[in-house]
Amino acid sequence: MDSDAGNRKRALRAELRERRRNLTGPERDAATAGITRNLVDLATDLSAQSIAAYLSTTAEPNTRPFLNWAHRQGIRVLLPISREDGLLDWTTGDGESETEGLYGLPEPVGGLLGPIAINDVDLIVVPAAAVDQTGMRMGWGRGYFDKTLGSMEKCPPVYAVLFDAELVDEVPREKHDQPVDGAVTPTRIVQFT
């Protein structure tokens, strides 16, 4: 890892975590409503029949209302399960049953489909700490989604979910970092490609 980029990433992540901690309940509720509306619009516009997404933590923008909507619509939703080797397995969990996975993150309960199950989805929704104006995504430092996206031969549209202030001019970049096609915030859908 480039030590300068790594140091800048750590500092930016710490700042973003603090901003997220300082959001009020009403601000989080408004953000959830906006993100859900925009994710529904995105999935509808893409006519997505299968989506790879994630179970949000309490500190992240809330993806759960969107996941519930997708299940009600009959959209197949793949959710990740972190592996110790740095890869992601996938499952079609029911969106309600979950357990604590690696690093204390919420993970779905369901039969494992393996890392290549994501190859058949129409849309990938990923978490992000920040995304810059070119579409470069900065995650939280474990590299799971960078490895997954970097290994795909034919990747469907990939959208990061974040708060409005986390769309920034530039994020520190390293060789393994993967860009996204767009970002979904409480107030807008941004396309980079």
From TrEMBL:
PANTHER family: 5-FORMYLTETRAHYDROFOLATE CYCLO-LIGASE, ATPASE INHIBITOR/5-FORMYLTETRAHYDROFOLATE CYCLO-LIGASE
Lineage, top ranks: Bacteria, Bacillati, Actinomycetota, Actinomycetes, Micrococcales
Enzyme Commission numbers on file: 6.3.3.2
Swiss-Prot/TrEMBL keywords: ATP-binding, Ligase, Magnesium, Metal-binding, Nucleotide-binding
Catalyzed reaction equations: (6S)-5-formyl-5,6,7,8-tetrahydrofolate + ATP = (6R)-5,10-methenyltetrahydrofolate + ADP + phosphate
Top-level lineage group: Bacteria
Cofactor or coenzyme needed: Mg(2+)
Name by which UniProt lists this protein: 5-formyltetrahydrofolate cyclo-ligase
Taxonomic source organism: Leifsonia tongyongensis
Record-level Gene Ontology MF annotations: 5-formyltetrahydrofolate cyclo-ligase activity; ATP binding; metal ion binding
